[in-house]
TrEMBL record:
This is DUF3817 domain-containing protein. GO terms for cellular component: plasma membrane. NCBIfam families: integ_memb_HG. Its main location: membrane. InterPro entries: DUF3817_TM. Pfam families: DUF3817. Residues 10-95 form the DUF3817 domain.
Length: 98
């Protein structure tokens, strides 16, 4: 884990994983709780954390992409991955591994 966090791309991969998990928690846990069981509290809490992770992920994709001189297509796919369920996991395997 230490090696993974030692560079910017590794930090992007870790953040992408965490952001992806938070997105799945919203979709499959907190949204059903909110709409089926009338329990909005978890959705608010996880939603706020996910929002911060989402913004951080987008900024980091742009930063890493510009620093590593990625094509705008690759940067765009990395950003698009953040709004598709399981997308950040795909991006980790297909885009962010060296």
């Amino acid at each position: 884990m230490q090696k993974l966090l030692s560079n910017q791309l590794g930090r992007l991969r870790v953040l992408g994983f965490i952001e992806g998990v938070s997105f799945l928690l919203i979709l499959f846990v907190t949204m059903p709780l909110k709409y089926w069981y009338d329990t909005p509290g978890p959705n608010k809490a996880i939603g706020m954390v996910h929002g911060l992770l989402f913004i951080s992920y987008c900024f980091l994709v742009l930063n890493v992409g510009i620093d590593r001189k990625w094509s705008w297509q690759k940067i765009g796919l990395g950003l698009l991955a953040s709004i598709v369920p399981f997308g950040t996991f795909w991006a980790d395997v297909k885009l962010f591994r060296e």
